[in-house]
Structures are given as C-alpha cells and as structure tokens.
Amino acid sequence: MIPGDTSGFKTSPVKMKLGRRPFTCFLPRRLRSCQCVVLGVAAINVIIFVTVFQGTAPRRAAGDGSAQIRGLLDAGDYAVSSRLTAGQTKYRNRLIVDNAAERRFTGEISEKTLCGYRTTSYIFNIPITLNQDPFEEYAKSMQCLADDNAALFSGMFAAFRNAVIDPSLGTSKRKGGELMDEVWDQKESDEYFHLSSGYFKIPCRRKPKMYFKNKDHLVQWANSLECYFDNPPTDITIRDFTLAIQRYEYVNLYHTMTDFYNAFVLMLLFGVRPSKMNILFVDTHPKGHLDTVWSTLFGKIIRAGHLNKPVLFHSLGWGMLGYFSPLNEHSRKAVPYLEEFREFFLTQHNVSTSHQLDCKKVNVLFIWRRDYVAHPRNKQGSVVRKFANEEEMLEQTQKTLGGTANVQGFQLDLMSMKDQLEVVSKCDILVGMHGAGLSHTLFLPPTSGVLELKPQYSPSSLLHFEAMARWRQLPFSLWHNTESSNEQKEHRTYIPPLDLDEEVKKIYSKICGTG
Ligand SMILES: *[C@@H]1O[C@H](CO)[C@@H](O)[C@H](O)[C@H]1NC(C)=O
User: Fold this and answer.
1) How far is the CA of 347 from the centre of ligand 1 (A)?
2) What residue intervals traverse the membrane (predicted)?
3) I need a surface site. Which of 205, 310, 313, 448 has the fewest CB within 10 A?
4) Nearest CA to ligand 1 atom 4
5) Nearest C-alpha to atom 14 of ligand 1 is from which residue?
6) What is the reported pLDDT for 55?
7) Ligand 1 mean position, distance from CA 322 (Å)
8) Residue nearest to atom 13 of ligand 1 (CA)
C-alpha cells in the first residue's frame, strides 16, 4: 500500500489558450518559420472554431475544421449506435447535454496537442460533458511544461509528446507476463521496476519540475525523466496514444476495476478512441486472468519489460494509481461517469445493456467464493469468506421468490469476463460475500439490487460495495453475522435460511416497489 500524502502541494491553474502550436512544431528553435505558419493556422482555427460553435454544436465533426480543433476523435469511427436498443433510450437522453452547455464546455479548448484536454468526449456517439469532479478539477489545473511537451494534471497524472522510454535504464528481477508455474513464491517487490535517470526522456531544454501529490510511483517516474535534444534517440515509434500504468493487486477484480475506471476516464479526457489507446504495463507482474480484459477494453497491451530497444511514443500518458481512484474513496457522495463506464465495459465485451426487470421472473445471482489459485504468493489458493451452505441458500431463495424466479450460483473467477458479464448484465438481485466479485455491482442493470453478506470476522468498516451501490442508486442490504456458531472451519459461514429469506424479500420489495 502506498501512503497517501496530500499536504504541501499547490497547483497554479494555467488556462489553456486557443491556437497552440500544432503537433509537428515541437522543436520551435529549429523550425523558426514554423511560428508564422502556426500563427496563421491558429487564427484560421479560431475563426472556424467560433463559426462552428455559433451554430448548432455538431455532434460529429468528420472532415470539417472543427475536427482538427477538437481533436481527432471521430465518434463515428467506433460507434456502435446500432446496438443502442429501446431500453437504452432513457440512458441516452440522460447523457445528451443541451447545446448551450455543450458549447460552453467545448468552447473552452481542446485540439490536437497533448497539452490540452477535452471538455466533451464521445462514447458510442453519445457526448459526455466532462465537468464532474474530481476530474474537472484535475483538468482545470493542468500545467503546460517543457514547451508544451509535458502536461501535468493537478499532480495526479500527466501526458507527454514524443517521449522516449529507454528500457536499458529500468531494472527488475523479471520481465513480466510469466506463467505462474515459473514464478512460484516470488516476492511482490520483484514485480516492480527500479528506474534510473533517463528511463523516460522528453524533448526539452531543462527538465521540467513535476510534483506529484501522492508519494507513489509517479514520483519515481518523474525522477527518472531527462531531456533529449534534436532527434529522438531511437527509430522505433509508437504513434497511438499509450497510457503507462503501474498496477498493484493485478489479479484482484476490485483493485483492477479502479485501474480500468481510471484509464477509461483518462481516455475520455484525452479524447482517444478505445482501440487507439495502448496500455503499457510498467510493472513485471506475471500473467493474470484479468490481463485480457485490458485488450478487450482498450488497444494493445505492451509490457515495459519486453521492450529491448528505446521506443518513441508520440503521445504518452502517465496514469493515475488505482488506490487514488475516486472509486476507492468510499465516503465520496458521487463518482462520475459510472453509467458511461458500465455502458463502455459491457459494449466492449459485446454484452447487451438493455435488460428489462420482470418482477414475476427475477434473476438472482449468487457469487460463490471458493479456494482458487490466482497469484504466485498463494499457492494453496485458500480463500476466506466462503459459504458453508450454498445448496441450501439456492433452495431457500427459490422458495422465497417462487418457482418462476431464476436462481443461480456461479464461481465467477473461473469464467471468462464476457461470460461473467452475460449473467451480471441480466441479474436483478446480486448476492455475495464481501469480496472483489461484488465489484460487478458496477455492471448490474440500473433496476437491480445488491445483498452483501459478511462473516463475523469481517470488519464492518469495509464499505467498498455499499458505496458502489449507493453511487449507482441501487437498493442495497447488508447482513453481518453475529453468531459464532455460524462460523465453520476453513472460513465457511453458515447463512441461516430464515435470515436469507428476510433479506431477499427486503431487496425484492425495493426493486419491485412492493414494500
Ligand atoms: C465483439 O465483436 C467483435 C465484432 O464481431 C469482435 O471482433 C470482438 O472480438 C468481440 N469481442 C468480444 C470480447 O467478444
């Protein structure tokens, strides 16, 4: 765990100006004549920009001048609007901001420079106004550094143009991506890099001062940053936006969800298409069962440990650590863009988001926790917080809800993410022990409810899933065992059928409005 330290840090907001230098002019000294062209282009841009936004704000900007200004996110390119079905109309209407608001936000900035950010983004042709905290605050205090080759966002994340990674200056015991059988019992500390000065390089005359709020890996990354002059010291180039991240607890669905969510929001802020956002793992964890989810959601996966020559990244982001995600702040009143995140996550897995609740035929999903080997430091795969009476729970719930209810239990971690989402996206009542699997609360239909169960030994201070349900406004109930006799060997908890009956009825009456 990384200690959080938010003291002693201040940013001075730098307001973004229109008409910044185009992408190709990042070496102003060497290309003096470029400046004139730049001013001309900037002026034309401003004129087009103003003209465009005086009229009706266009949803799509294919081929007109605004496309350049607003970044190159042509929503149509990856739109799956045909997948939007009747059930989603409500959702869609909620997302469309009125034109005045859209103008106001898009009107501020955003063009094809990394030293900028979007105030409106499109996901599946639906505009999202990026005006929610904490991200709006991070974006608004953006600082442009090193001749606009670096942008620092409130000490939480950053982006660079033409950054070079020199793999010879990063050392780790492992390369990452190994099979678990090859690395039994390796220390967690073997799964991170030590970076020497020059691992990251950007075009600059003086190394920019970059303060990061949290004492996390970004401080180490910033320390390793050096300048290069003239030509980038490599001939290998990656053009697509690449988000560099360092993962902790990479096989835990809850923690990985905070990473997915952070990456999703940065994708919106930087205006990148999902398939054009590569993910660079700057860690050396072995293969994990959630790795492939990254490439389903975003572009290519690159492991820093597998680079063997310096590489130039046209656009490189430094992502936010999962622990500092708003998703991990359980006392927050709200977490922005969660419905959009759900839509994105399910749609990227080709899973429908249009389930309709039928109170005569509710779908109940029990998540089973069972012993399961997921990483090299738990060879026995022993898992706590298991149920002692799975069969009895299914039978009781069927009795409670009647024969037409569809009551099922799954050990989700044995299934592919797509198969997990297929059941979760149709689930009306989700039941599970406190544990990462309940992160699926984020993907339930907006008409569902959640029942969380906790053994006696589980602290009541853990609010991860209650918070997720609250943010999504889903009915939620918690049953916390108080009888020692219900706790059995091997961390199995007996759930008394009468208690379950009462809890399931409670959730049912909340989602079906019968209570
Ligand atoms: C979703 O469908 C597309 C198009 O058929 C396919 O290329 C992609 O692999 C599918 N994704 C998943 C996760 O099944």
Assistant:
1) 10
2) 36-53
3) 205
4) 350
5) 349
6) 29
7) 27
8) 349
The atom of ligand 1 lying closest to the CA of 418 is 13
Q: Mean pLDDT, 10 residues at a time, over the chain (515 residues)?
A: 30 27 30 40 43 30 26 26 26 27 30 70 84 90 91 95 96 90 85 95 94 92 94 90 94 95 95 94 93 97 96 96 94 96 97 97 96 74 92 98 97 96 98 96 98 96 95 98 96 97 98 84
List, chain by chain if needed, residues with CB within 6 Å of any ligand 1 atom.
296, 349-350, 418
Whether the CB-CB separation of 75 and 22 falls below 8 Å is answered with: no
pTM of the model: 0.79
Give the pLDDT score at 113: 53
Q: How far is the CA of 178 from the centre of ligand 1 (A)?
A: 26
What is the radius of gyration, based on Cα positions, of the chain? 25
How is the chain split into domains, by residue range?
Answer: 70-327, 351-512
Query: Are 385 and 342 within 8 A, CB to CB?
Result: no
Buried b (16+ CB within 10 A) or exposed e, 145-181: bbbbbbbbbbbbbbbbbbbbbbbebbebebebbbebe
Specify the residue with its C-alpha closest to ligand 1, atom 6: 350
Six-digit token string for 294:
């990254």
Please tell us whether the domain made up of 351-512 is placed in CATH 3.40.50.360: yes
For the CA of 350, the closest atom of ligand 1 is 1
Task: Give every CB contact of residue 504 below 8 A, 6+ residues apart in sequence.
Answer: 364, 396, 397, 400, 401, 429, 431, 451
Give the residue, by CA position, lying nearest to ligand 1 atom 2: 350
In angstroms, how far is CA 472 from the centroid of its own chain? 16
Q: How many A from CA of 224 to the centre of ligand 1?
A: 39
Mutate to test the pocket of ligand 1, among 350, 418, 421 (most ligand atoms within 8 A of CB): 350
Contact 457, 484 (CB under 8 A): no
Closest ligand 1 atom number to CA of residue 417: 13
C-alpha to C-alpha distance for 316 and 328, rounded to whole angstroms: 25
5: left (phi over 0), alpha (psi -120 to 50) or beta: beta
Confidence (pLDDT) at 20: 31
Identify whether the C-beta of residue 9 lies closer than 8 Å to the C-beta of residue 155.
yes
